[in-house]
């Protein structure tokens, strides 16, 4: 048996444990909040900066993804660039030299007249990519022609081939907006005779407008049979009715500065379809774009008593093409 006096001489076990717990608790770090931790790490302004960045992004989206003062570049570079009314890109190919020469002798100025027009705010360029065999005679011939005429916009990153044609419109708008700061960017095919003065007058009336998507608006059936002309590989995306949404016809369409800039900034993630007019129309559907359906931009000789600004000829009929310029 344990003697009472021995028990009395021992320390109280409960008291020892209580003391140890009290000492241990006093050495624990005090509880701190997330704000305290951020302050200790020097991150007190992070939340405010994130909020400011989100506001800047929202503002940029509402303005069409413009930088700075909305001119063609970033920083001081953009503020010093000349402002143009329009950049007109005429699609062309390696085998279309005769067409280009016909253009140069008709509605499209050449030489000093082209420079004078540019000084007045309108740029016109033939738009072409590079040969699949980079640096071959096709590329060299275009380079030589451009040295003489200085009227090409050569898309260095685009391969000028039939299967790559739907992607060309991305490269055109991107290259054009990086080279020239304009109110409007115009894409036209090389099978039309254009009333240039009438087009310039139309665009002058709309100076200062944002978010404009202009052209001869149309829709039509989606071709799902691979062996047919105008076959659309993505036909199933257009629903059971297989009908394209409303879009500007590819012969000529116009985008205002902020819409062209949107394409430039987002080109890597934008879906391309079999035809460039469908592609652009699909991109415009997701934006707050203002559709301008002007029948003067349709391929007709006269529309409701008004003269059309363009006359078109069937693809591949060069004799009819020449007649558009010579016979009228």
Task: Record the SSE blueprint.
Elements: H1 4-9, H2 13-27, H3 34-40, H4 46-62, H5 75-79, E1 83-91, H6 97-104, H7 112-119, E2 122-130, H8 137-149, E3 152-159, H9 168-179, E4 181-188, E5 192-194, H10 196-205, E6 212-218, E7 247-256, H11 257-266, H12 276-285, E8 290-293, E9 302-303, E10 306-307, E11 310-312, H13 318-326
Helix pairs in contact: 9-11
Helix share bin: 25-40%
CATH architecture: Alpha-Beta Complex
Q: Structural class per helix/strand content? A: alpha/beta
- Low-pLDDT ranges: 64-79
Bin the strand percentage. 15-25%
The strands making up the biggest β-sheet line up spatially as 3-2-1-4-7-6-8
What is the number of helical segments per DSSP (H or I, 4+ residues)? 13
- Mean pLDDT across all residues, rounded? 80
Count of folded domains: 1
Q: Radius of gyration, Cα only, in angstroms?
A: 33 Å
Could you give the order of the helices and strands? HHHHHEHHEHEHEEHEEHHEEEEH
CATH C-level label: Alpha Beta
Task: Give a structural overview.
The protein is elongated. α9 packs across α11. The strands form three sheets. Strands 3-2-1-4-7-6-8 form a seven-stranded mixed beta sheet, with helices on both faces. Strands 5-11 form a two-stranded antiparallel ribbon. It has one domain (75-326): Spore Coat Polysaccharide Biosynthesis Protein SpsA, Chain A. The chain has 13 helices and eleven strands. The chain is an alpha/beta fold and 328 residues long. Residues 64-79 have low confidence and may be disordered. It has helices at 4-9, 13-27, 34-40, 46-62, 75-79, 97-104, 112-119, 137-149, 168-179, 196-205, 257-266, 276-285, 318-326; strands at residues 83-91, 122-130, 152-159, 181-188, 192-194, 212-218, 247-256, 290-293, 302-303, 306-307, 310-312.
């Amino acid at each position: 048996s344990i003697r009472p006096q021995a028990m009395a001489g021992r320390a109280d076990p409960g008291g020892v444990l209580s003391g140890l717990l009290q000492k241990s608790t006093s050495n624990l770090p005090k509880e701190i909040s997330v704000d305290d931790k951020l302050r200790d790490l020097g991150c007190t302004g992070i939340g405010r900066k994130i909020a400011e960045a989100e506001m800047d992004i929202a503002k940029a989206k509402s303005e069409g993804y413009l930088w700075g003062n909305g001119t063609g570049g970033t920083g001081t570079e953009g503020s010093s660039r000349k402002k143009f009314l329009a950049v007109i890109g005429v699609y062309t190919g390696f085998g279309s030299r005769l067409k280009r020469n016909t253009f140069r002798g008709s509605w499209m100025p050449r030489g000093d007249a082209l420079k004078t027009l540019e000084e007045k705010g309108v740029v016109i360029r033939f738009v072409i990519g590079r040969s699949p065999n980079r640096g071959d005679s096709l590329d060299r011939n275009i380079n030589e022609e451009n040295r003489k005429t200085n009227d090409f916009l050569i898309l260095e990153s685009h391969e000028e081939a039939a299967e790559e044609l739907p992607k060309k419109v991305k490269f055109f708008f991107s290259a054009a907006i990086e080279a020239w700061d304009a109110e409007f960017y115009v894409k036209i095919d090389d099978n039309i005779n254009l009333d240039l003065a009438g087009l310039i007058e139309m665009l002058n009336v709309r100076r200062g407008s944002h978010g404009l998507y202009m052209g001869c608006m149309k829709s039509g059936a989606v071709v799902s049979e691979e062996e047919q002309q105008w076959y659309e590989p993505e036909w199933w995306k257009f629903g059971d009715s297989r009908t394209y949404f409303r879009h500007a016809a590819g012969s000529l369409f116009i985008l205002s500065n902020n819409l062209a800039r949107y394409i430039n900034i987002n080109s890597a993630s934008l879906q391309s379809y079999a035809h460039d007019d469908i592609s652009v129309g699909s991109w415009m559907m997701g934006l707050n774009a203002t559709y301008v359906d002007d029948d003067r931009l349709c391929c007709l000789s006269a529309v409701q008593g008004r003269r059309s600004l363009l006359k078109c000829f069937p693809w591949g009929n060069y004799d009819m093409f020449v007649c558009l310029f010579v016979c009228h």
